Amino acid sequence: MKAEQVPQDKSSLSDKELKELCYAVDDKGNYTTALSSGWEPKSVALNGSIQLIQQRVEEAKKLVLVGKKSPIVYFMEKNKMDLSILASYVSLWKWRVKRHTKPKVFKKLSSKTLQKYADVFEISVEELKNFKG
Amino acid sequence: MQVEFKHQQAAHCENGVASNLLKHQGIEISEPMVFGLGSGLFFVYLPFLKVNFSPAFSYRPMPGWIFKRMAKLLGIKFKRQKFNSPEKAQQTLDKNLTENIPTGLQVGVYGLSYFPEEYRFHFNAHNLVVYGKDDKQYQISDPVMQFPTSLTHKELEKVRFAKGALAPKGHLYYPIYIPEEINWEKAIKKAIKKNCRDMLAPVPIIGVNGMRMVAKNIKKWPKKIGVPKTNHYLGQLIRMQEEIGTGGGGFRFIYAAFLQESAEILKNNKLKELSEEMTQIGDMWRDFAVQIARVYKKRSNQEDVYQYLSDKMLEIADREEAFFKQLKKAV
């Protein structure tokens, strides 16, 4: 890659006025660095995985709405987490977190446990309990 | 309190922190040199490990390995500490700052407020340097950022104690011993040899063999798992190859820069030629990403595009195999 070919496409980086450093060669073939505002093929891949997360959040919302899953699932997806990550944040076994995703079990959770989840999601216990999808 | 610290942007966090911390100690070491000495060029395919709902691919060794290998080869010793208590972790960091020691930290990316939302995933092996503190904020030199930045005390605690895989547990590090003389020639040769061994390893998931295995799977995926999932896997491949930190082309350009620098130090013209070859290989990887992006957007005119992508990747694997065989002979 030549320094003048370092891509300057619009991306989520350029929206925040960030630039990333790339290695490229100058006219004489010597290595130098150049800043890039983004590269379209990369943005395509990144947007693809963002869309996947959005789909999962929407799906979770529906499942909470019809009463198949507890609000924990929605907030877990919203925070880009999976069961393992969430379990380590609330310091509980994964199988226990999995049980808490059942609406019936969720309803019986102690306020202490609910507080743990609320803290991780950075919301109030009320918001967690009253989320209906 | 604030330590005088020169922030320099880097492509990759691990190399960048190492380079910036060592420059602070008076050792002129570039980012590509850190990467090369850490035998950083790699490829690994872990079909059984799912990351982001896709098999794991990586164009570099495990987080931390580049840093450790580089330090070992140069004879530099780092003090490393992990903590169970956030209070203790903060006290130790603050004590370092009062003693004028800029300190490297391992952190989680998810809580880094200065990153764009799209980049904030639960990845816990990011690196940065803290070089100052006031009553509200810590001053941060994050090597992937253009300029120094800052985090509130609370934010810093959160990223230092991020949870999940590779949890940092407040991990901090700083150099405590630097040898009087460094034998660069010897270190470079050793690191290059190791890199050749890794890339040519007789293991099906590693190095050029790993690339061939992915290439073969690309052909099978559409039938086996369907087109949307195949495209998602391919998207993940681009992300690992081109994401912030790679310097583009799956770290190939950084390695080419390292070879060019080494050619000067070792007075070895062959390495200069090989640096040019590696640049071309990097361009092939870039082109591969462009082709995948077209498939991803369903805009490819190619018939049987997956066969085509598979062939492209096999071509790169052949070229890298030939490259590392030559490199092995050159040092």
How are the secondary structure elements laid out?
The complex is a heterodimer of chains A (133) and B (331).
Chain A: H1 12-15, E1 20-25, E2 31-36, H2 40-65, H3 71-78, H4 83-90, H5 94-100, H6 103-107, H7 111-121, H8 125-130
Chain B: H1 13-24, H2 31-37, E1 44-51, E2 54-58, H3 65-74, E3 77-81, H4 86-98, E4 103-107, E5 126-133, E6 137-141, E7 149-152, H5 153-160, E8 172-177, H6 184-199, H7 207-225, H8 227-242, H9 252-266, H10 269-296, H11 305-330
Antiparallel strand pairs in B: 1-2, 3-8, 4-5, 4-8, 5-6, 6-7
Helix pairs in contact in B: 1-2, 2-3, 2-9, 3-6, 6-11, 7-8, 7-11, 8-10, 9-10, 10-11
InterPro entries (chain B): BtrH_N, DUF4872
Domain DUF4872 (chain B): 154-327
Pfam families (chain B): BtrH_N (PF14399), DUF4872 (PF16169)
Unreliable residue runs of chain A: none
What is the number of E strands of chain A? 2
Work out the strand percent of chain A. Answer: 5-15%
Largest sheet entry of chain A? 2 strands, antiparallel
CATH class of the largest domain in chain A: Mainly Alpha
Shape descriptor of chain A reads: elongated
Q: What is the CATH H-level superfamily of the largest domain in chain A?
A: lambda repressor-like DNA-binding domains
Domain module count of chain A: 2
Largest interface: A-B, 38 and 51 residues
Helix content of chain A: 55-70%
Average pLDDT level of chain B: 94
Question: Could you say which structural class the secondary elements and strand pairing of chain A correspond to?
Answer: mainly alpha
Protein name (chain B): Peptidase
Domain Butirosin biosynthesis protein H N-terminal (chain B): 12-143
InterPro entries (chain B): BtrH_N (IPR026935), DUF4872 (IPR032369)
Domain DUF4872 (chain B): 154-327
